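Prompt: I keep going back and forth on a fold encoding question. Comparing notes only helps if you start from a blank page. Show me how you would write down a chain together with its backbone fold. Please set it down just below, with no commentary around it:
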Amino acid sequence: MTLADLNQRFGIKNNLKFSEIAGGLIAAEISNAHASASIALQGAHLMTYQPHNQEPVIWLSKYAKFTAGKSIRGGVPICWPWFGPHATDAKLPGHGPARTVMWDVLEAKALTDGATFISFGLIETDAIREQWPNPSSVKIEITVGKELRIVLVTHNTGKQAFILGEALHTYFHISDVAQMTIRGLEGCDYLDKVGEPARRKQKDGIVIESEVDRVYVDTAADCVIEDRGLRRAIRIAKQGSKSTVVWNPWTEKADKMGDFGQEGYRGMVCVESANAFDNVVTVKPGETHRLSVVYSLEGLK
């Protein structure tokens, strides 16, 4: 579908338009009564979300690269249908193919409360079928309003059950990592992936002072990012997710990645709603699995 076709079929006057951005990628650009947002059709990748008169909620690297077939640094990459390395084939892309391929726009509409709804469906190709031979469909539904709502929907269209791993790999904008504490995971077990892998238990709120890469398991709890620098909190409420991933690459890894910038890691933290490791999901024939999140702002008490 051409840019003109997209705007004619799905554009909403003074609300939603489609534009070409860097690297020749196409993005849906939303600006409504509550907030602004941008979503690349490659990966159905929400890149930005900013309520009016607020700092951004979602972090996008100033040095992000917009290239066909490559993931964008920041925003909300979609990890599907596995999380991390493939279980049996290391040659397959980490976190699955969904975040680097094209998605179709399925629907767009302005809602009565002033929010904007848009949904995307993964375009099935021979390459994806080779990597994921299980008959299925996947779509993502995004509602941009006073809060940001995202629902990742997987439907098993085949005759055999399959194992699904997934995550919304969300990068949150913060004032400075030294001014931040993550609440909600106290008492949870987690797999610590920094250094020699180990299973540990979280005692208090999460403070980041070095590289952090943790998969918290068996938790459906809300998480709250307390940001003393911005004097606000970001609440992450989720359903259909039993894992939470917390990640910050810190200095050495961020430098090697090349698209963070010298101090980029200080202004972000990933708190990912997931089903990974102990919490992968079995989706039976004809069943639909939904992973949903709501991101909202609160005053800091």
About this structure: The chain has one domain: 3-299. The longest strand covers residues 288-299. The chain has three helices and 22 strands.
